[in-house]
C-alpha cells in the first residue's frame, strides 16, 4: 500500500496562485506559501484559499478509523461560536465557566460512583492523553511520598499495563522516567485480566492501568478481576497497588448501556479515571476529563495556585491556557441528552457495531477478533489457512477508493504476525450508511477474489488511528 500522506510540498510550489475569478482589484495574484506574504489580502481571498485547500480532507462521516466526534447539533455549534474566546484557566474573568467545569467533573464523579462526588477532585484536559499523564503523575507522586515516609528508595518506579495500551502511556513512562511493564496479549488472553500479575508487580509498582476500551480491539479489561488479583498480591506481600482506569472510550459507554458492569470507583482500589469528552462524550475535538476518587488521591504538591490572572487561581494540568468552550459543550450535552438520551445514542452505535459484526462474520474470508459488544468497535482478520492473493492492506486501498477509511495494522508485541482491520462506530454512522459500507465491502472483496495472481505488497504500511 503506498504512503498516501501528503508532504509539506505536495500542495504545489512555494506560491499560491489565485484564480482570476477570486482575484480582487489591487491584490496580488500570487501569495507566498511558506512565508508570511508581504502585503495584505482581503478576508474573502484568504478564506477562499484556506477553504479550497481543506476541501481535500476526507469525509468525516466515512472515516471508520477515528474515535473522535465530528458532529454536533446546530444549538451546540451556536454555543461554540459564542464561547470560543473563553480562556478556561482565567477563572477570575470567566467565573461562570469555572463553575460549570466543576459541575461537569462532579457529574462525572457521580456517574462513576465516587464515594462522595462533591468531594472528588478532577479537571478537564486537552484530550484524555493529558488526563492519562496527570493520572500517572499522581500515582508516581503518591508512591514516592509513601516510600520516602518509610525511608525507602524511590529510584525505580514501574507501571504495569497491557501491551495494547494507547501510546500516551508509553509516552508517560518515557517522559517521567517510569519503567513500562507490559503484559502481552495473546490469542488465549486478549486483554489484561489479572492472570499472572504477580510476575509483573513489585514494591516499586506505582499502579496498574486497566483499559475500559482497548484501542486496538474495543474490548474491556475486567477491572474488578484485576483488582481481585491485586487484593491477593497485597495479602501475600503487603504491596498496596492502586488502579488507574483508562476509560478514554468506555467511561462514556458503560454507565449507560452496561450499568451493571463494575469497573469504576465502586472498586476501592480504583484511584482515578480518565475519559475523552471528544470521543463518546460526543463533544468536538479537544476535551478530556480526569477524576480522582477523593482529595487524598491527588497529592497536594501536584496542585498549583497562581495570582497573576487577577485572582487566586488553583490549577491542575500540564497545559495552561486552553479553551473553555468545549467544557460548555459537554455541559450542554449533559443537559440536552440526560441519562436516557446518552443511553439511546450509545445503544444505537452499539447496535450498528453488532450489525456490522454479524455481516462481516458471515463472510468466508474473515474471522472476528472482537464484535463490538463492549464499546462499539469491531476488529477482524483474514481467515487462517487459505492462501490469499491479497491482504487487508489491499482491501483498505480498495475501500478508500469508495471514500471509506478503514485502518489496517498489526496487533501489539507477541501478536505482530496478526494483521487486523477495525471499524469504530460513532454517532453519525447510521444503520443505512453501515448497509452501504457492507455492500461496498462485498464488492471490493469480490474484486480481490477475482485476481488470479498475488498483488504486490511493495510500499504497504500500517494505518492506525486512535
From TrEMBL:
| Listed name of the protein | Glutamate decarboxylase
Q: Which NCBIfam families match?
A: Glu-decarb-GAD
The uppermost taxa in this organism's lineage are: Bacteria, Bacillati, Actinomycetota, Actinomycetes, Micromonosporales
Q: Which UniProt keywords apply?
A: Decarboxylase, Lyase, Pyridoxal phosphate
Q: Which residues carry this modification: N6-(pyridoxal phosphate)lysine?
A: 279
| Keyword Lyase found | yes
Give GO MF terms, alphabetically. aromatic-L-amino-acid decarboxylase activity; glutamate decarboxylase activity; pyridoxal phosphate binding
Alphabetically, which GO biological process terms does the record hold?
A: L-glutamate catabolic process
Name the domain of life. Bacteria
Amino acid at each position: 500500500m503506498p504512503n498516501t500522506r501528503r508532504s509539506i510540498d505536495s500542495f504545489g510550489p512555494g506560491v499560491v496562485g489565485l484564480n482570476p475569478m477570486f482575484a480582487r482589484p489591487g491584490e496580488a495574484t500570487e501569495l507566498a506559501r511558506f512565508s508570511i506574504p508581504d502585503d495584505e489580502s482581503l478576508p474573502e481571498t484568504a478564506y477562499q484559499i484556506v477553504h479550497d485547500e481543506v476541501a481535500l480532507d476526507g469525509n468525516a462521516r466515512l472515516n471508520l478509523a477515528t474515535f473522535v466526534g465530528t458532529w454536533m447539533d446546530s444549538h451546540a455549534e451556536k454555543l461554540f461560536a459564542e464561547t470560543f474566546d473563553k480562556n478556561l484557566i482565567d477563572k477570575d474573568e470567566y467565573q461562570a465557566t469555572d463553575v460549570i467545569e466543576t459541575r461537569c467533573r462532579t457529574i462525572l464523579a457521580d456517574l462513576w460512583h465516587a464515594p462522595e462526588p462533591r468531594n472528588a477532585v478532577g479537571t478537564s484536559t486537552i484530550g484524555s492523553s493529558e488526563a492519562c499523564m496527570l493520572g500517572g503523575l499522581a500515582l508516581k507522586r503518591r508512591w514516592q511520598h509513601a516510600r520516602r515516609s518509610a525511608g525507602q528508595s524511590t529510584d525505580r518506579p514501574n507501571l504495569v499495563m497491557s501491551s495494547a495500551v494507547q501510546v500516551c502511556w508509553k509516552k508517560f513512562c518515557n517522559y517521567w522516567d517510569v519503567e513500562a511493564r507490559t503484559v502481552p496479549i495473546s490469542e488465549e488472553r486478549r486483554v489484561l485480566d489479572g492472570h499472572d500479575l504477580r510476575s509483573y508487580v513489585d514494591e516499586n509498582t506505582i499502579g496498574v492501568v486497566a483499559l475500559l476500551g482497548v484501542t486496538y480491539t474495543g474490548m474491556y479489561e475486567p477491572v474488578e478481576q484485576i483488582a481481585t488479583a491485586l487484593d491477593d498480591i497485597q495479602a501475600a506481600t503487603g504491596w498496596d497497588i492502586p488502579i488507574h482506569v483508562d476509560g478514554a472510550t468506555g467511561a462514556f459507554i458503560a454507565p449507560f448501556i452496561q450499568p451493571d458492569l463494575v469497573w469504576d470507583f465502586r472498586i476501592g482500589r480504583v484511584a482515578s479515571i480518565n475519559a475523552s469528552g471528544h470521543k463518546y462524550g460526543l463533544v468536538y475535538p479537544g476535551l478530556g476529563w480526569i477524576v480522582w476518587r477523593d482529595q487524598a488521591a491527588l497529592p497536594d504538591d501536584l496542585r498549583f495556585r497562581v495570582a497573576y490572572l487577577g485572582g487566586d487561581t488553583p490549577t491542575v494540568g500540564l497545559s495552561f491556557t486552553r479553551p473553555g468552550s468545549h467544557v460548555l459543550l459537554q455541559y450542554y450535552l449533559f443537559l440536552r441528552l440526560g441519562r436516557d438520551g446518552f443511553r439511546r445514542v450509545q445503544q444505537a452505535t452499539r447496535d450498528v457495531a453488532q450489525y456490522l459484526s454479524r455481516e462481516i462474520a458471515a463472510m468466508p474470508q474473515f474471522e472476528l477478533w472482537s464484535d463490538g459488544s463492549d464499546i462499539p468497535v469491531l476488529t477482524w482478520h483474514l481467515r487462517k489457512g487459505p492462501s490469499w492473493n491479497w491482504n487487508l492492506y489491499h482491501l483498505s486501498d480498495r475501500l478508500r477508493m469508495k471514500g471509506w477509511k478503514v485502518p489496517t495494522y498489526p496487533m501489539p508485541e507477541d501478536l505482530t504476525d496478526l494483521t487486523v482491520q477495525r471499524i469504530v462506530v460513532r454517532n453519525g454512522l447510521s444503520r443505512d450508511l453501515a448497509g452501504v459500507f457492507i455492500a461496498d465491502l462485498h464488492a471490493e472483496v469480490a474484486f480481490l477474489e477475482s485476481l488470479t495472481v498475488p498483488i504486490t505488497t511493495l510500499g504497504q504500511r500500517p494505518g492506525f488511528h486512535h
